[in-house]
Design a protein that fits this description.
By secondary structure, the protein is mainly β. Helices cover 6% and strands 67% of the residues.
Length: 257
């Protein structure tokens, strides 16, 4: 046990000098407390990045460590290799994203285990493997992206239309076709986002600044109604939605390690 604690402290110490987020969510006996530690450690030829979140559910007497991100990236010229747990979201959807990430018990998202090789040039080419989805290949040219993997294929892109941005994606999946069309534009002291998705999904969100406070308003329908209200000020955020209240306090440490 002492060895485990020592190893954990060794791994987490660089993150303590960079970024953190402490928070809680839920109601009654379902409250979860967490501390998310963010770090990026330089190594020869690359860097190690991670987001680790110890969490505790006092009412249930449970807890653990959520490994949300833990990957090593090495670069050489116009190529890079990434190995470990990395986040992966394809497409342009902001309210209905197509993602391989899974919800984290610490109010975040856990990436997938695997690795990928990226080649940079006129187009960005990526070939990799993710535990679950399998082998995948992605190509990107400007604002256009293409993805293929054993479970399907997809095409996504965006374009500016006057003062607005229009984006969308079309995917053929083993579970059936998926499509998304979104529109984002400036409205008042913030940004409005409208999305429609297939299978049935429609959502509207506004995010901006009001009297020095960050404000998020969100409402959507897709397998049921979902809504959210968020307020933020200097690293402190409070959110209320269908899953109960959530508060977060984030910041950073600096120092030598």
């Amino acid at each position: 046990m002492r060895r485990f604690v020592g190893f954990l402290a060794l791994v987490l110490s660089p993150a303590l000098a960079q970024g953190y987020e402490v928070g809680a969510f839920g109601l009654g006996g379902q409250v979860t407390l967490y501390l998310r530690l963010l770090g990026e450690v330089p190594v020869e030829g690359g860097r190690l990045s991670y987001a680790l979140a110890p969490y505790l559910q006092p009412g249930l007497g449970e807890g653990g460590l959520a490994v949300e991100r833990l990957h090593l990236a090495a670069e050489a010229g116009e190529a890079s290799l990434t190995l470990g747990r990395f986040p992966y979201t394809f497409g342009e959807g902001r309210l209905f994203p197509y993602t391989w990430n899974a919800p984290s018990p610490a109010a975040g998202a856990e990436g997938v285990w695997g690795g990928f090789l990226t080649l940079y040039g006129e187009a960005r080419l990526r070939l990799g493997y993710a535990w679950g989805p399998g082998v995948f290949a992605e190509a990107a040219w400007g604002d256009l992206k293409f993805l293929v993997f054993p479970g399907g294929l997809g095409l996504a892109g965006s374009a500016r239309l006057g003062e607005a941005v229009v984006y969308g994606e079309a995917m053929g999946l083993a579970s059936g076709p998926r499509g998304l069309l979104g529109w984002s534009w400036a409205w008042g002291p913030g940004e409005m986002v409208l999305e429609a998705a297939h299978p049935l999904g429609v959502g509207l969100a506004w995010m901006g600044q009001v009297e020095g406070l960050g404000v998020l308003l969100r409402a959507s329908y897709g397998e049921g109604w979902s809504w959210g209200l968020g307020l933020g000020w200097e690293g402190f955020r409070v959110e209320v939605g269908g899953v109960g209240p959530l508060w977060r306090w984030s910041g950073s440490w600096s120092g030598e390690f």
